Amino acid sequence: MKKLTRCFICIEFPEEVVKEVGRIQEQVSKVPFIGKLTELNNLHLTLKFLGEIDEEKIETVKKSLGEIQFKIMNTEIGKTGLFSRRKSPSIVWINIVGKEIFSLQNEIDIAMEKLGFMKEERFMSHITIARIKDTKEKDKFIKNIANIKVRDTKFKLDNFKLKSSDLRETGPIYDDIGVYFSKD
Known about the structure:
Blueprint: E1 4-11, H1 15-28, E2 34-37, E3 45-54, H2 55-66, E4 73-85, E5 88-97, H3 99-114, E6 126-134, H4 138-146, E7 154-157, E8 159-166, E9 173-181
Antiparallel strand pairs: 1-3, 1-8, 2-6, 4-5, 4-7, 5-6, 8-9
């Protein structure tokens, strides 16, 4: 039986973004909730989730990703928001603004579709900063998230990564499989 590895393609962030996300997480925590903040060393923006694939497919993916041409991306942190499940908050996120990210994600999607992966129905450029199981003060929690002021944080991105994800009870362990740099 072939060994399968859970893989995804993502962008990781510079220190100034990580610091701002940490500050925002402090704001999120002002209203108690049951759940988990994303560990700052695990912050990323998923461009494409590939699922569990074998070594042969990983090599094909690496080759295909290496052929993608892109330029350095000028981006910035946008606003906070929520995804809900059954009318209750489930994910707190921050969007990442920059049309270049959408272009890169589309290029990756096209390349991966040629390898048999499903095309993304819709892509939202965001970082998950907390996963919410429950909150006793739902309305207060939602209002708190809506009122978080995000500091103006502009930054450049010059690479994306193919990563493995090993899910454990203590949290996911991510490892780089490949790093792909801009051509400028």
